Each structure stands twice: as C-alpha cells, then as structure tokens.
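Notes to self, M14 family metallopeptidase:
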Amino acid sequence: MKAKHVKWLLIASTVGLAIGTIYANTSENPSVSADLEDRPVEMMSEPSQIVQLEVPNEEALDQLQRLGIDLTHRAEMKDGNFEVDAVVTDSDIDRLSQYGITVKDTLMTSDIWQERVDERAQALEEKNQIEAEDEELQFLRANHFTNQSETFLYLEVKSSAGELSSTSLTADWEGNGDPITLERKSDFGEYLYHYLSIPIDDVPEQITVTSNLGNDVTAEVTEWLGDDKPGNPKKHYAKEFIDHYMDPHELNERMEQLAEEFPDLVEIVEMPNETNGYRRHAQATLGSTANAAVVVTSEAWGHEGGNDLSIELLADENSTDLEVAVNDNQITVNLETDENGEVVSTAQDVIEALNAEAGDVITASTYRGYPGSAPVEPASADLTDGLSAPDHISREPQTVKVLRIGKHRDGSKPGVLGYAQEHAREWVTPLVTIETAERLLRNYAHDGDTKKLVNNLDIFLIPTMNPDGATYSFYDYNWQRKNMTNHCPEELSDFGARDYWGVDLNRNHSIGSVHDGYVGASTNCTSAVYAGPEEHSEPESQNLVWLADEFENIDFAMNIHSYGGYFMWSPGAYDENREPLPRPTAGEEAFYWSASNHILNKIQDHRGTVILPSRTGPIPDVLYSAGGNSADYLWYEKGIYAWNFEVGADLWNEDEERWERVGFQPPYEEGHEEAMEFANGLIGLFEVAYQHSKDHQPPKSEINPGKGNYDNPVEVGFETSEPATVYYTLDGSRPTFESEVLQLGGTREPAETLTVDETTTIKWFSVDPAGNIEKNYNPLGSSQNYNQATINIQE
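result:
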C-alpha cells in the first residue's frame, strides 16, 4: 500500500493538458511520415468538465500519470482504489477507459458553468436596477426597553436597496461616538430589513440611520413594552456582505469603496509589479490539415488593432507567382498555381512570404512544429484575440491591490496576511477576503472583539492575486487555473492552444521548486501546474515576495484556495525520493496544530462544517506535493506561519448516504455559505495572531522519566506547558540556539524521544512561538539557568 501511495503522490508532478496533440511535434518528424500530412488541425474546442475518476489499479495509475490529466485538489484512496477529481474532455474519457479508468460522477460541465455565469449576470442586473433607483429608507422600529438590569436599543430600518448585501446602514445619535453598523436580515433569499440590538447606558431621543449610498432617515426613540421583555438579545455582529460572485473589476471597486468609507481604518497598498494584462494578440489558423496549416498572429494586441485584421488566401488559375498585398487591415495572399490550376504554394512558402511582406503587421508560423511542406488551400479568416469580457473590463496590465486594515498601520503591530485566487477558477476565495474586510470595518464601532483585532493587528487582505486569469475564467474559459502569460514556444502558440497558456502562480516560487528537483509542478508550458521558465518569473509571485519584504511585521499568513475542505501547512513539497522540505520542529508543529484547532472551530461555528482530521496537516501528508508553492516561500524564506485553506468541504447527502463534491464554482447559495464559514476561519487566524502578540509568559518543560537511576536504557520524552521548541545537549555542554532541536518522531507523529543507554546529563531549554524563553534564559550569553537532569544507567 505504501508504494501505491507514493505513486499517487507523484501524479501531481506531471499534471498537465489531457490532450496529447497540444504538445509540440518533437518526437516524430511529419516530413518522413506521409500519413501525418493529413492529420486534422486540432482546434482544442472540445468542452471540458470536472468528473470524479475511479482508478482501479497500479497500472492504470501509471497511465493516468503519463497522460498528465489536469487534477483538482480533491483526491482520496477508497477500498484500495483511487478516486480523483479531474478536468477532462469526452475524448479524454474515451482514452482513459482503455486503461480501466472510468467516470464515477460528473461534477460540473460547461453548461453548469454557464448557469453560474447566468446566475451572476442576473444578480448584477438586479444590482444595477436597484442602484439606478433613488434609495428610500424607512424606519420600522426605533425602541428601547429595559430587561432585568440592562437597557437595550432596538432598531429596524428597511432600504429599497437592501436586496444588495453591499448596502450598509449605520446608526448614529447624540453622544454615541462612532456610527454603528446595522445587521442585514433576510429569510429564504428575501431581504426583510436591517436591525440593531445593543445594550446602552443612556436612551437617545432620536436616531439617524445613514446608508452607504448617501441617504439617511431619522426617527424618535420610543419605549417597547416597559421593563418586562423576556430574554437577552444576542450580541450584535453584522455580517453577510456579499451577494454574488465578483470578478476582479468588482473586487477593486469594493476595495476602493471601503477605503473611501473608512479612511481611518483602511488604506489600499498597490503592489509594484503590474500583471501582463487581460490581453492577447489576435490570431487565426488557416488550413484543415496540420502540415498545410498557417498560423497568423498580429503584432498589435487584439484590442489595439489586431482584432481588425483579416487575411485571405486566393488561388487564381493564372497565378504564376506567390504574392502578398496589405491594404489597410486586409492581407491578401495570391497563391502560386501550376498549369492545371492546382495550388503549389506550401504552408512554408506562404509563411515566408507573409513574414517578408506583412511582417510589420503579423507574424506567420507553421502549425505546432509541422514543417508546412504540404500545399495550402484557399481560405479566409478574421483575426481575433478570443477575449469576451465586456468593454468596461480593462485589457491593460493590472495593479494588484491589497486592503490594509488596522488602527495603527505603521508596522508597529503584528501583521497578518490573507490572500486569495492564485488559481483563477476558484471563485469563492475572493469572497472570503471581502466578507472578512466588511466585518472588520462595519463592526469596529460597536463590537469590542472586532475593535481589539483592528486596534492591535496590521491586517493585509488580497482578494485576487491573479486578476488576469480570474477575468479569463469568468468570461472565456471557466477552468482557467493559471495567469495569462504565454511562455510557450511558437509551435505551441496557435489560437487553439490559448486555454493552456499561463503559469501556475502557486508553483512559481523559489522554495521546493521543480527547477530544484522537487515534484508537484511541471516545466511543460501547457501543463496545469507549469512552474514558469524560472523561479519568480511572474509579476504576481514577485508581488508576494515584495509584500513580505516590504512589511517585515507580517507574522502569519493564509493562502485561500478551493475546493475539497483541506487545512494545511508546510512542508508543501518533496523530491522524487519523497524526501520533503525540512519538517517544522516538534514545537512549531504543535503550534500549527493548536492554532489550527482554534481556526477550524471558528469555521464549524457557521453551519457545522468540519474539516476532517484526515485533511488537516502538512501538505504532503494530506494531499500531494506542490513544488514551488507560495506558503512554503513564506515559511522557509520569511519565517511566517503560513497556512492553506481549501474552502468547499464535501457535503453529506443524507438520502444517498454519501459525500458530494462542491466544485470550484458551486451554485452561489453554496458559495456564499463557504465564504461565510471561511471568513469565520480567517478571523480565527486574526485571533490567533492577537493572542500570540500578547503572549509574554515563558514556557515550562520537563523530561519524562526524570532524573534518577535506571537499570535499563530508557526513552526520554519532553513535556512542555504550551507548544514550544526544545533545544538540548547530551554531551554536557551548555545548550544554545545552535544545539540539537527536538523534532517530530515521524509523519503525523508527536515529538521524538531520546534513547539514553548510558549515563547522560541532558541540558535543555524551550522557546515558545512568541519568542519567550524558558526561565528567561539567555542562550547567547553566559547564564546557566537552563534545565538539566542526569539519567544514570546502572551497569
């Protein structure tokens, strides 16, 4: 079983494009194989879908590895077989069936993706209709009442724009201080009203409620039922600030809105490395067979004139010369014919002529490495960049933006980073950051716990690390994982390959990289986990490096992904011998588990979702190797405690008694719930960071068994009062930071024990994650207040 487990983990090192014809024709020479000249041009237009594959045996597993299927994050072993989720086409499914690999379940198709797009479009249309109207605010209730020993204020206000979760109402009155955000109440999808229920010291005479759309309404406060109202209202905490999937353009708008509304608590940090942009050169492929095809690419970007170009290949019986003419945006090629009127101009002939005569407008090349030795056919085409986003979506390079939230944003407070959508198709993940930001800002004025976090932390939230790829996923190809930068050579850069270009930003970092021999990524430019031509080649990954360098106070980070319901940390990669990056020390691992327990409890609070223990832990222990991922960079290079969310835990189907996957783009109703529960989790991380910053108590430690006389060798373990790293010596020397460190006993095991088989004096001290040293011992000085114990093994 162990060997099979290793083979499964190695699949991640080769995942890529499922259709072999996308790869360049480097292993065979079409010029010496006549049957290849008639091979059809592969336009790669076959729709993809996400399915659950059943892999029956080791041989089939090997074949899946060789084919390089695009795997999602969802995988498990069951009854000796493997169940994996993958992005495939119908052709892939037919091909896989030859090896006994079958489809157990279809999780998401292009039609379902279109339903999600339509669902989002409807939400946006309703939003625009509401915003186009003049908002009306109506006070439903403005009451005070005394319950037992406490006086409460209760408000209900209805907004005509309340269907939008982005519509926010705040209440203010004389002597109140900061305005207080009302909570939005809805039931079964219907907006009812906004409300506020809080204890107060003094009853105001009147209340003014103001909308973030700029309108306000005032009401007199009246008494409700005297002092016999039973029960205590729940603590007031506003949430539910999202109502549809948001593309990068909308995310930036919401960020700007929050920065404008809360200038004392938030600012936008613009990272220095612009993306390549949501843009492509316009292209066309002329010809129906590979060796006779001509690929044409505009010099200008599509939106800057490339999309206006047309090309036509004409055959005239009297044409004795190959000629190219460029007239405005029209390129015409008169092909050479023989005495019978048959075209003799080959694809290579046409390509050379186009590059010579129209090279300032377009470049021409053969199709996917074929020599172009076959005669072309008359054809015509309009060049296009294939991009479908509406005009208000910019095609230009984008600035990736960070919401920096905190009362003191000067580097004096501990920093916490939450970043999302490294992978473009993961639509839920940006909503986690936006919901979290809204909660922090809109509850600050009235919720003590929120104020504590905002006043004492420096919080960085990045809704989308990959705005170009995310835009492409929303409007062009929903399974897009990577950014849009094409590093492929000419033979892999025709229009039909456009959905397979790009770099996996979570494989582009310098720690545990495929370029250094680690697995879980690829050097093939069409692979779903293409690591890029070199480490940190992409501006998006460079931005994360810049952020960690620029803000050295960042101590904690959460990389937000989907789907599968995983909660993971470093090490995230291993080499071909399954040797992982260095494991955290036993104390560091204990802290990861302790903090994770708090965060996962917060996730569960929303609707009871439990992240399974089998999906919690270091990345290789619960999923697979992910060479060059960003969390490893933050942990190993910057010393930042870094986790990875995989939102979208499986849902239990009571009727069918089985777990069901949710996918990258579930119905918004489910996506909303995932965003709510993982926003809880992100705030749980902030609570961990806050408690960490307030920890000034040194740890305590002891050994078990303790000092004394023993007849036989003993296994000595260390026990600490809290997660702490133990430094120790066995040779009688004074322990320092250069001494041995207590490590884990093994994968998913507790701390190691020390085998003592001869009389030994153990000297040690412990350090907790906050840097507190046991007994305030100074390992760098000459003090002697470390722990020591002698284990006397009697002969």
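- Residues 311 and 381 are 6 Å apart (CA to CA).
- The two ends are 43 Å apart (CA to CA).
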